[in-house]
Design brief:
The complex is a heterodimer of chains A (about 120) and B (about 425). Chain A contains three helices and six strands, in the order E-H-H-E-E-E-E-H-E. Chain A has helices at about 10-15, 25-40, 90-100; strands at about 1-10, 45-50, 55-60, 65-70, 80-85, 105-110. In chain A, a hairpin with a 2-residue loop joins strand 3 (about 55-60) and strand 4 (about 65-70). Chain A is flat. Chain A starts with a strand and ends with a strand. Chain B is mostly helical and about 425 residues long. Chain B contains 21 helices and no strands. Chain B starts with 6 loop residues before the first helix and ends in a 5-residue tail after the last helix. The chains are: A alpha+beta (about 120), B mainly alpha (about 425). The interface between A and B is medium-sized, with 23 and 19 residues.
Amino acid sequence: MKYTILVYETAADFKDRADGSRRETYWGAYRAYTHSLQAAGIMVGGAALEPPASAATVRQRNDRRGVQDGPFAETKEQLGGYYVIDVPDLDTALEWASRCPAAATGAVEVRANLSM
Amino acid sequence: MSVVGSPGAREAAERAARDSYGRLLAYLSARTRELARAEDALGEALLTALERWPRAGVPERPEAWLLAVARRRLIDGSRHARVQSEAAGALRILLEGAEARAAAPEFPDERLKLLFVCAHPSIDPAMRTPLMLQTVLGLDASRIASAFLVAPATMGQRLVREKARIRETGIEWAVPESTALPARLAAVLEGIYAAYGSGWDDVAGADPRRRGLAEEALTLGRLVSQLMPEEPEASGLLALMLHCEARRAARRDDAGHYVPLDQQDVSRWSRSLLEEAESALGAGARAGRPGRFQLEAAIQSAHAYRAVSGRTDWEAIALLYEGLVRCAPTVGARVGHAAALAQARGAPTGLAALEALAPADVAGYQPYWALRGHLLRELGRRADARAAYDRAFGLSEDRAVREFLMAAATPLGA
């Protein structure tokens, strides 16, 4: 069963990505987490995303197209990346999600992928 | 004496409310065999008590108070068609009878029966602990779900399913006879230990968000050792949990960094919890019947002795682990044994013990990879150490632990 782990990070997390002393801890944590998903043979895919400031949001309403700078939602935690994993059940998916570095700082959401 | 409204009063009130709730639920469900219905009857009474008692103080007869509220709710409820069944009627008569009994100073304590029902062999092993926490302490499903990393809706469904199974399979509502007792008691104790968390090597114990259900597990542990004073393993389990609990404050330094057990500042260990632990361990030892939990507690006791002697006797700890591995060969015990061997007889011996473990058993076990990293580093196998630390790192949930591992791995290069 495939699940997507959505990684929501805080502004501080996004800052850590490029911060001199914090960046090694930040990327080291994600590198190791990704390795452990691979070592367990459950990693299907995923991506790290550029910070929310780089986002552009598109909406089409009444045949009119609107593009805005910035992310869709103005919340404290923003989507910073995602993983797709293949595990037997939701319990196992939650177990892996809890080890994601963002679980300790921001939030991590787990959803089952619809099978199509 | 804690003042009404103070945090101490809140704790005392919560303890009294859960204590009375468990006694009442055990009493009612033992007579009706209708666990879910008894819970429905008492549930709102418990919520009302948890809200009111911290402010107003614990009533003189807590059981009578809860029963009176529960009976009123049940009568209100039976105006709706839903609960006009025979079972609800029987429950109401029983509530009235219990209320009369609760006027006496001591309400009968039948919570042991309830614990044995929850840990019955026909109950899904993964659901025994959640059932105990919900029935004996009245915890709600979402709180239990968080502690066990399960989605709250899923946990709720599973609890309902197991309660239906208890009713349908007609599980005997009793403390088992002597021949069946050891195995059944082991299941009860394991259930309580599971509530304590991933055990003493749960290195993350100092983070308040991850405290989980340690407090609740201690309550259950104290309960069983009080109700079964002649069972040394019950005392052993209590001693084990108390030893771990005593070190909670020492697992982090002032800057929030993770501190491994053998480097902890012993002045941060709780003297009173250590004393309680030692007295429980001693009480168990007098029976002359050692077992898994007594051995695990003895290992913790040997670590605690560093506060007196100033050093850790690793050879003694390795021997205790050897005994533990013989009677309970869990992955945790075997990794603990390897760690003690490495300290007592050198890294190569420890590593050999680690390598005897089956790869499938350790793939997701963080302490194995952390220890492997430490030992390989000590042996100068830098690349292998780095890879092991990486695995440990990826399996850690706790930020402070990840930082600790990162600090250990960084000098090894990428």
